[in-house]
Write a structure and sequence with these properties.
The chain is mainly alpha-helical and 89 residues long. The chain is built from three helices and no strands.
């Protein structure tokens, strides 16, 4: 459909002109207004980008992590992160 094929009634044109200068109401009456941010958690849904790698670990180290955590790969990652933070200058 082309723009020149569209015809508007006089009433529709008046309504469009009235809307042109009107500021829309974006409030949602069903949502409570949040003003207290005391319990807000920064980065709650942040997940760092993961990269798949092949890593060779001593068998006893890998076994220890597997015994101590169901998500042993996450525990290894946490241990590596702690090491890096302790050794940063």
């Amino acid at each position: 459909m082309r723009n020149e094929d569209i015809t508007l009634t006089t009433k529709a044109l008046k309504e469009l002109k009235a809307l042109k200068n009107k500021i829309p109401d974006l409030s949602d009456p069903d949502l409570p207004e949040i003003t207290n941010w005391d319990n807000a958690v920064v980065g709650k849904f942040y997940r760092p980008i993961k990269k798949q790698v092949t890593l060779r670990l001593d068998a006893d180290i890998l076994e220890w992590f597997k015994i101590h955590a169901e998500k042993y790969q996450s525990l290894i990652n946490e241990a590596c992160r702690e090491y890096v933070l302790r050794h940063q200058k």
